[in-house]
Amino acid sequence: MRGPYLDTSALAKWYLNEVRSEELEMYLGVQGQALISELTRVEMRCLLARRRRARDFGAEMEARIFGVFQGDVSRGFLQVGPVGADCYQEAVNLISALPDHPLRALDALHLAVAQSYGARELATADRVMLRAAEELGFRVVPFCA
Question: What is the pTM of this model?
């Protein structure tokens, strides 16, 4: 697999009009492909449902956005990799190895997955993830608001 690893906070900007969405669009426009994990699929589905419940948009728009996301996966623009069993232990290790970073469980898992894919670059809109990824040696592309 090749391309930068996108965590869900960055990927959401591709599908939703948010602060720095245009910058992410330009960034992804030159990438060709990007890496995500099965975890990202679940998080995207959850994010869209949460935004619908918050009345940011209706059920029809939710379905349309998720359909576009699935199309990007089907076309191979988003390469979806598995979350291997070893990634869970590595996430535990990362939380221990980065004690000054208030990593949430799924953020640690994203970092472990990105490492397992051999990703060198990680795009995020999450400041905690950004700092932890930098400490791990990733080239970080920030899309924080």
Answer: 0.91
